[in-house]
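Most newcomers find our protein records easier to grasp once they have seen one. There is nothing in a record beyond a sequence line and a structure line. Getting from the letters to the tokens is the skill we practise here. An example says more than a description, so a record of this kind follows:
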Amino acid sequence: MELIQNKALIELELCGQTIEIASEPIETTPIKLTVTKKQDCAFVMVGERIKYTVTIENECGGELHNLKFKDKLDECVEFVEGSFRVGEHPATPELVDGVLEYVITELTSCETLEITFEVLATESCCRGCRPDPDPVQSARPTVRAMHAFSPAVGGTGIPGATIHVERPNGQVVSATVTFGGTWSLVLGMPMPREGEVFKVWQVEQGKEQSEIVTVVVI
């Protein structure tokens, strides 16, 4: 660990001589503190938990005391009581206006400390969502333009819903809408031909099927 060293110097002329008067040397210890955060999953359903891991590393600096850890929780989660741990030990943070706070009493040189805790995804995760326009019938999906001799078809829909595509010969193939709201599938043989008409509809869980979208191959 490199120290920053310094001293002050006064130089004066006295009786034809140059005299230097120096202060005592002082040393400064540079601190490099890094904080990283990760989660155990990228997608979560309402009612499920997310586990966060925060890693604090004192990269060979001086010993640190009374570090205040803070983590502002999103509006659509609730802190899970009893889930907060500092290293291997359970701890009790304060929750003030949606911010978790905890004082780390000591972090020695070259020490790495992990803080973990869990939150629960709540209904407010859907803030900004539009009200369900129809509680009975599924919404119509969107379908991208279909081209002759192209084996793939896709579009957008309601996450988790099932998309059904009916070929001109009556064969039906299906796909599930992703969490990102998109769907796609490979039709296989025979390839779509120009002028053929395909029918597409969507079925959301607990609802009736949507209106049929007709697509003419171009």
